[in-house]
């Protein structure tokens, strides 16, 4: 827990610093281009949270495949950690997006926008996997079922990534990683990068802690069974 | 500045949510470790209780 704790603390300190930089240091955007220029600053939270969600869903995919094809306990622990981290970061992304949407578009959600809906489905998938797994006794059948959801649900990740490149409906298109070098100011890019690194560190710390938690639960079950036999 | 106030509240709310999530993970880990230590001590005392009886009933 010690190494996970250090990584978690570093990530938490990083996201707190990025919040302060986003509020106090990052330059303002043009008031002509935005309905709500102040709300745009939630972008420094929304984009890194979505980035962290993709990392978590990637871990869920690898863990699910590792369990289904290798029957690896370590991969099962990665599945559990990825789904919990995916749920948390997915909710953070949806919540911050709704705050931004309400201020900028006048509505928190647009049911016709592809990216919003594919990402919403991804978060619902994480809710289903986490709640469903916790409501079932641990066993091969339960693990196979939820690993299959984790494996096939991953198709929503590339779909969400390319959504605004193919269908720009309401959600803005990419501002970094584009062919023309992106449309973001240097200082804004710095805060965004710092925030993305902080969210990555935080989510890795959470997944390390979660994997250890699952390991402890498994050890406890074995110890409980041994105690029941002895006493 | 009003917009910035709402934004600060939204940011702060998310930080609190992450803190709570982190706290629950750490707390769950501590509880599991406590339960494991308790079970290990039960197992150890059961083993020392059983050992003399085994000797006493041995032929």
Describe the overall structure.
- The complex is a heterodimer of chains A (231) and B (59).
- With 231 residues, chain A is mainly α.
- In chain A, 76% of the residues lie in helices and 0% in strands.
- The longest helix of chain A is centred in the last third of the chain and has 45 residues, at 186-230.
- With 59 residues, chain B is an all-alpha fold.
- The chains are: A mainly alpha (231), B mainly alpha (59).
- At the A-B interface, helix 1, helix 3 and helix 7 of A face helix 1 of B.
Brief account:
Chain A is mostly helical. Chain A is 76% helix and 0% strand. Chain A has one domain: Four Helix Bundle (Hemerythrin (Met), subunit A) (Up-down Bundle).
Q: Specify the number of helices of chain A.
A: 7
Report strand % of chain A: under 5%
SSE run of chain B: H
Shape of chain A: globular
* Helical fraction of chain A: over 70%
Strand content of chain B: under 5%
For the report, how would you describe the main beta sheet of chain A?
Answer: none
Number of helices of chain B: 1
Shape of chain B: rod-shaped
Assign a percent range to the helix content of chain B: over 70%
Topology (elements, then pairings):
The complex is a heterodimer of chains A (231) and B (59).
Chain A: H1 2-24, H2 43-70, H3 73-104, H4 114-135, H5 140-153, H6 156-166, H7 186-230
Chain B: H1 2-57
Properties at a glance:
heterodimer, A: 231 residues, mainly alpha, Four Helix Bundle (Hemerythrin (Met), subunit A), 76% helix, globular, B: 59 residues, 1 helix, 95% helix
